[in-house]
Design a protein that fits this description.
The protein contains 16 helices and five strands. Helix 7 runs antiparallel to helix 10, helix 11 packs antiparallel against helix 12 and helix 15 packs antiparallel against helix 16. It has a five-stranded mixed sheet with strand order 1-2-3-5-4, covered by helices on one side. The protein is elongated and about 130 Å long. The chain is α+β, with helices and mostly antiparallel strands.
């Protein structure tokens, strides 16, 4: 990847004219880095200042790093993110020096940065020399006849001008190469390394996933409220009117009464289906009374006996409660469909900031996620909040599903 980037930078520099905006942008970037390395070179030139100036660089490493990032951002449009745990912000200079990331920054400010600044100084000098030499043929003839300098350069003016033009062509390449080296060195030494970048990316994905899970849960609650307050109320009113008509209208033809009866029964069935749908989206009892009451409702409605044992010492995050609720609901549905069980034991506990669900049945066992028994979906649901799900289901039973979820996101 670095060689590819370098090759592209050089190709772009060859194809553009020396006076292009990109060439001046490269030069502006590298020239701005020269003053930042001045203390180090002053310490090299004046040995007596070596210790105080080095100490000054170490103490001001954070300011120098911020200045270098600002230079790359403002002049080159390159954002160098700070490392994770950026430089022991809560400690003093010694604490910051002990931080591993600061050794990379110190190496940049004491070694890499000054070397790049020296190269940059040479590039800037080449720009000046190229301009002077490329115009020799022109300005030498502006001198009065008989001027010693004109006489001395009379036979060299063409050669110097050609050399200046060649230098003017070559210098943008060196500027582009130096700017590329500046960016790469800053990204490697002033930014996060690969492990830190991966850790940062994992944190961003985790936060994004948690936000998505919360958004889905909030949308589910909104739909539940809209259905409960809208369509369900209208259907309930319709069923009441049809029931009233069914009881009070005695003098209508039998076929008309049959239509009313059928409409009333259909309305009642629609209400029951909508109620189950609303409960499946997000049961109101889960939000009002918590996971204990919601699981009690699931156990009461289950098609087989469920022995429930709940011991919750703290209220769990709403999103985790929803995941636990739907996990238990789907697990009991799977048991009723596939396990041929007579009873289910459901244990719910909190310990160490984790919610532990254990669902055990006395069925035939042999549950396998690869056979589409719904266990894959349960595992994905638990993983959506950094939870885990394990299944122990030997042939002949019993089957035990253990789910562990964080109590808070």
């Amino acid at each position: 990847m670095p060689s590819t980037t370098l090759r592209r930078a050089l190709v772009r520099s060859v194809r553009r004219p020396p006076w292009s905006a990109e060439a001046w942008r490269d030069t502006r970037l590298i020239a701005a880095g020269i003053p930042l390395a001045a203390p180090v070179w002053l310490a090299v030139i004046v040995p007596s200042l070596l210790f105080p100036l080095t100490a000054l660089v170490l103490v001001c490493a954070r300011l120098l790093t911020a200045a270098q990032r600002g230079r790359l951002r403002a002049l080159y449009g390159v954002e160098v993110p700070p490392p994770l745990g950026s430089v022991g912000a809560s400690g003093g200079p010694l604490a910051r020096l002990r931080a591993g990331v600061n050794w990379r920054q110190t190496a940049y400010h004491l070694l890499v940065g000054p070397l790049l600044a020296l190269v940059s100084l040479c590039v800037v000098w080449c720009w000046g020399a190229a301009v002077v030499l490329a115009t020799v043929y022109g300005w030498i003839w502006l001198m009065p006849v008989g001027t010693p300098l004109r006489s001395e350069l009379a036979g060299l003016d063409v050669a110097l001008t050609v050399g200046g033009v060649l230098l003017l062509i070559v210098t943008p390449w060196t500027a582009a190469l130096t700017a590329w080296a500046e960016v790469r060195a800053a990204q490697k030494l002033l930014g996060p390394d690969r492990a830190e970048a991966l850790e940062r990316r994992v944190e961003e994905i985790t936060e994004s996933r948690a936000g998505l899970v919360d958004a889905v849960d909030a949308e589910r609650r909104r739909i539940e409220r809209d259905l409960h307050d809208g369509a369900q109320q209208r259907l309930t009113s319709l069923a009441m009117n049809l029931g009233l008509a069914r009881r009070t209208l005695k003098d209508v033809p039998p076929e008309v009464m049959q239509v009313i009866v059928d409409a009333h029964e259909e309305a009642q069935a629609a209400i029951d289906e909508l109620r189950d749908l609303v409960r499946g989206l997000h049961p109101a009892v889960l939000e009002d009374r918590g996971l204990d009451a919601a699981l009690s409702g699931i156990a009461a409605r289950a098609p087989l006996p469920v022995r429930l044992d709940v011991d919750l010492t703290e209220r769990i995050a709403p999103t985790v409660e929803a995941v636990a609720y739907f996990t238990v609901s789907e697990a009991l549905t799977n048991v009723a469909k596939h396990a041929r069980a007579k009873q289910v034991d459901l244990s719910v506990r909190t310990a160490g900031g984790r919610l532990r669900l254990v669902i055990s049945d006395d069925g035939v066992g042999g549950a396998d996620a690869s056979r589409g028994t719904g266990l894959t979906g349960l595992r994905k649901r638990a993983a959506s909040v950094d939870g885990t799900l394990s299944v122990l289901s030997p042939l002949g039973g019993p089957t035990t599903i253990t789910v562990e979820l964080p109590c808070a996101l």
